[in-house]
Amino acid sequence: MDYNFDERIDRRGTNSVKYDLCRTLFGTDDIIPMWVADMDFRTPDFIIESLGKRCEHPVFGYTILPSSLLDAFCAWTQKRYSWEVHPSDVDFVPGIVTGINLAIQTFTKPGDKIIVQPPVYPPFFNAPKMNGRHVVWNSLKEVDGRFEMDFDALEKQIDNRTTMLILSNPHNPGGRVWSRETLQKLASLCYQKGVLIVSDEIHADMTYNTATHVPFSTVSGEAACNSIVFMSPSKAFNIPGIIGSFIVAPDKNLYRRFHNTLMQLDLHGNLFAYEAMQAAYHDGEEWLNQMIAYIQSNAGMVVSYFTKELPAVKAMMPESSFLVWIDFSELNLSDQALKQLLVEKAGIGLNEGISFGPGGAGHQRMNIGTPRSIVSEALQRISHAVKEG
Ligand SMILES: Cc1ncc(COP(=O)(O)O)c(C=O)c1O
């Protein structure tokens, strides 16, 4: 069956972060919001039906994490990544940002140093700060329009107070899918230096056909015993409001310590999350493949539009997900003036590059998980606003 991603759905008035916070954040409701990372596509019917079916039973009591959900997740990782995950290495975690905070509390001490590679998803550096840890910036390099890790700088940054590195695999912003070689190099360096890797793989399921996602802990024995991985169907199936993700910790000691933290806080999932996640992993493959093809085409359209129509603005072609990193620096505007141009002249709400840490100035992140007609309208509005000044 062909799924329809062109449908425009009015999300205003649903307490949507993306739509119902526009006035607060951009000072107006009269914009196309292309910022926070959820999509405007209809949640797939097999998920809606699974929730409806559960609602037919009138009691919503305490619910166990179904072993069928863990089995569906493990079958998914096997099929999509040839990754054999054992259910005993997996725990439910409400959200991945929650998981990152718990990992910091579990595996590091106040005053420790935690490495992040900006420009990067802001909770990666806010979580260490909020937990009283120091942030070490190991900035990504941009080489031929692609992000690369700076291993020379990384090695110099690590000292005996550096205990964790938080990895976005694939990378947000920009959708860079890290190669096996890069991940092996990272695993080896961090293992030697005693730096635990927290690999956030929330965007993995949306990897385009131009790249291959490699789960971090599979790249070597050093990675398997020195990392934890977070995964979730929330982004790929557009259910982030349902709140549900997994930690995979193949190392028994790391698993036990993280599990203990979850137990202390009595953190588990809710019955609707279990239903939705299971439906996603069980029935979601065809829908997801079509959705990826759709956003991949949206991304191609954005990149070629700027190349042809507005060459001073450069969009990085993602290899995964729906978050395009756009470089406006040739316009020589301050970040404030750039935001003003986009909001007031173009009527578009993007994420400001400066919110992603060092390397973000002059950039904006555009969410293209929306019907193509909206992306197209946004591009024309930006082009018009820039040309008019
Ligand atoms: C890299 C990354 N991790 C985590 C999240 C959010 O995860 P959660 O909603 O499960 O906390 C996002 C959302 O944009 C993200 O881009």
UniProtKB/TrEMBL annotation:
Cofactor or coenzyme needed: pyridoxal 5'-phosphate
InterPro entries: Aminotransferase_I/II_large, C-S_lyase_PatB-like, Class-II_PLP-Dep_Aminotrans, PyrdxlP-dep_Trfase, PyrdxlP-dep_Trfase_major, PyrdxlP-dep_Trfase_small
Keyword Lyase attached: yes
Signal peptide boundaries: none
Enzyme Commission designation: 4.4.1.13
Residue ranges of every copy of the Aminotransferase class I/classII large domain listed in the record: 67-382
Superkingdom of the source species: Bacteria
Keywords: Lyase, Pyridoxal phosphate
Keyword GTP-binding attributed: no
Record NCBIfam families: C_S_lyase_PatB
Family the UniProt entry places it in: Belongs to the class-II pyridoxal-phosphate-dependent aminotransferase family. MalY/PatB cystathionine beta-lyase subfamily.
Protein name (record): cysteine-S-conjugate beta-lyase
The organism of origin for this protein: Microbacter margulisiae
Lineage, uppermost ranks: Bacteria, Pseudomonadati, Bacteroidota, Bacteroidia, Bacteroidales
